[in-house]
Amino acid sequence: MNEKQQSLLLESAARFAPPKGVKLSYGTAGFRADASLLESTVFRVGILAALRSLKTESVIGLMITASHNQESDNGVKVADPSGGMLTQDWEPFADAIANAPDPHSLLQLIIEFAKKEDIGFEGRQPVEVLLGRDTRPSGEALLDAAKQGITSIVGAIGTDMGVVTTPQLHWMVRARNRGMEASESSYFHQLSSSFRCLMDLKPEGIRKNGDDNALVVDGADGVGGEKLEHFKKMLTELCIEVRNWGDGMLNEGVGADYVQKEKVAPRGFGPADAGLRCASLDGDADRLVYFSVILNESNKIELVDGDKILSLFALFIKEQLSILNDSESKKDNDSYQAHLGVVQTAYANGASTDYLKEMGLEVVLTPTGVKYLHEKAAEFDIGIYFEANGHGTILFSEAYLCRLESTHKTLLSTSEGSAKQKAASRLLAVSQLINQAMGDALSGLLLVEVILQYMGWSICRWNELYHDLPSRQLKVKVGDRTAVVTANAETLAVQPVGIQEAINAEIAKYPRGRCFIRPSGTEDVVRVYAEATTQDAADSLASSVATLVDQYLGSGTA
């Protein structure tokens, strides 16, 4: 970085003084805080995004959103060239520059990091960052700060993609780096055409069990609701009514996070909706849950969460693979058996994990966090991951997609219209419909809808796949959360010494009891999760283990 480049960066940074007494940390959600505190941070993340583009020689994404947080909050996160999350290796640098006290300290950090990463500032290809924001009032000013951060790196440009969902921006980054058109219209076209293809491949004579094509969607008064209200015009096979798509306060009594945690109907839904198939998006449309309002029960609902969505997807994919690899195909030259894997965290309800295993599926657990789930799912030919909160997707490996396309081409020429050819077509269409960059409520919703029609299932039939075990989550305040060390995807506590044996003794008191503890990633608390066959038993198990945590290292239940 020459003197002129340094001078430009210092001049720009001087306009964005960091707030005093505020320390931010980059996590799965990027940086999040009250919007009034973020201008300096977003400016500096703009710099990071430009440096990331220089390093990777690819287009990078920068999204301004606080997802399911209250409207007064905002946040910023970076999308890597694949459309996935910023590599974890760069997170410490993100923390360092966000918290640099002044422009000169910031410049020094950048120079040192660029040297370590071998990032050159001369003679490289154009540096471009795609920018997106959700509907929050604070988004426009923060977007301007991000642009100024990007352009403080000489030669870098920020391309404003407008108001978009987080998954749309990540999809656009992935598309651009694959040489495809990256626009909202191309996103909607890919989703609608692959959805239509799957609808055309439904088995003949299938009838819905008590349901029709009507779907009512809670848009969380966020960007996802607005986009779906526009997008539904392209989905003539479905009758979609969107509620809460901009006429109320973002995430206030609405949205997937609210519905999943509170297990009640969102604002604008009530007894009159009993029997209808309903879905809820979160504030930036990267989470999706379904629900049905219970008749004569005010705002109580039957929740169909991310675990059930995962189960539905896994059943469908497994069935298509079974058709493709039936006994006759073993005589064929291409009898490759795809490696299908399901990835969950320890927070997945034990009933869902048991059900998936009973169906003969390979289930793998990872530590909590989308980055771990996504990374593990990418190890399979087809990897499916979801959290109970409704965030998840399906990943198809490039090698398997090439093989599948070749198989499909052969089947078209030798047995067009056969069950195998249709199964291959369905799998290819799913790979186009699902957003492989990250969890996407809009693409996930379309895949749920087409699978329900394929199966001939109502939401009630879907919800009967298994019955969740009652669970309870608690937080215990501790002096030092790092004193808890876990293993086996956070299901075992190896430190403090002896605590796991004490937890096991409590678990043994309850039928189908399960309990684990893990340190919070953001605050000095230890989280307790417990399951058992009754709610009273789950509550009791959680309480007794919280007491153990307090005895070993705590200062009271939060």
From TrEMBL:
<dbReference type="InterPro" id="IPR005844">
    <property type="entry name" value="A-D-PHexomutase_a/b/a-I"/>
</dbReference>
<feature type="binding site" description="via phosphate group">
    <location>
        <position position="67"/>
    </location>
    <ligand>
        <name>Mg(2+)</name>
    </ligand>
</feature>
<dbReference type="GO" id="GO:0004610">
    <property type="term" value="F:phosphoacetylglucosamine mutase activity"/>
</dbReference>
<keyword id="KW-0460">Magnesium</keyword>
<dbReference type="InterPro" id="IPR049022">
    <property type="entry name" value="AMG1_III"/>
</dbReference>
<feature type="binding site">
    <location>
        <position position="527"/>
    </location>
    <ligand>
        <name>substrate</name>
    </ligand>
</feature>
<dbReference type="Pfam" id="PF00408">
    <property type="entry name" value="PGM_PMM_IV"/>
</dbReference>
<comment type="pathway">
    <text>Nucleotide-sugar biosynthesis; UDP-N-acetyl-alpha-D-glucosamine biosynthesis; N-acetyl-alpha-D-glucosamine 1-phosphate from alpha-D-glucosamine 6-phosphate (route I): step 2/2.</text>
</comment>
<feature type="binding site">
    <location>
        <position position="282"/>
    </location>
    <ligand>
        <name>Mg(2+)</name>
    </ligand>
</feature>
<comment type="similarity">
    <text>Belongs to the phosphohexose mutase family.</text>
</comment>
<dbReference type="Pfam" id="PF21404">
    <property type="entry name" value="AMG1_III"/>
</dbReference>
<feature type="binding site">
    <location>
        <position position="286"/>
    </location>
    <ligand>
        <name>Mg(2+)</name>
    </ligand>
</feature>
<dbReference type="InterPro" id="IPR005843">
    <property type="entry name" value="A-D-PHexomutase_C"/>
</dbReference>
<protein>
    <recommendedName>
        <fullName>Phosphoacetylglucosamine mutase</fullName>
        <ecNumber>5.4.2.3</ecNumber>
    </recommendedName>
</protein>
<comment type="function">
    <text>Interconverts GlcNAc-6-P and GlcNAc-1-P.</text>
</comment>
<dbReference type="InterPro" id="IPR016055">
    <property type="entry name" value="A-D-PHexomutase_a/b/a-I/II/III"/>
</dbReference>
<dbReference type="InterPro" id="IPR036900">
    <property type="entry name" value="A-D-PHexomutase_C_sf"/>
</dbReference>
<keyword id="KW-0479">Metal-binding</keyword>
<dbReference type="GO" id="GO:0006048">
    <property type="term" value="P:UDP-N-acetylglucosamine biosynthetic process"/>
</dbReference>
<feature type="domain" description="Alpha-D-phosphohexomutase alpha/beta/alpha">
    <location>
        <begin position="57"/>
        <end position="90"/>
    </location>
</feature>
<feature type="binding site">
    <location>
        <begin position="387"/>
        <end position="389"/>
    </location>
    <ligand>
        <name>substrate</name>
    </ligand>
</feature>
<dbReference type="GO" id="GO:0046872">
    <property type="term" value="F:metal ion binding"/>
</dbReference>
<feature type="binding site">
    <location>
        <begin position="518"/>
        <end position="522"/>
    </location>
    <ligand>
        <name>substrate</name>
    </ligand>
</feature>
<feature type="domain" description="Phosphoacetylglucosamine mutase AMG1">
    <location>
        <begin position="305"/>
        <end position="457"/>
    </location>
</feature>
<feature type="binding site">
    <location>
        <position position="284"/>
    </location>
    <ligand>
        <name>Mg(2+)</name>
    </ligand>
</feature>
<dbReference type="Pfam" id="PF02878">
    <property type="entry name" value="PGM_PMM_I"/>
</dbReference>
<feature type="domain" description="Alpha-D-phosphohexomutase C-terminal">
    <location>
        <begin position="475"/>
        <end position="547"/>
    </location>
</feature>
<feature type="active site" description="Phosphoserine intermediate">
    <location>
        <position position="67"/>
    </location>
</feature>
<keyword id="KW-0413">Isomerase</keyword>
<dbReference type="InterPro" id="IPR016657">
    <property type="entry name" value="PAGM"/>
</dbReference>
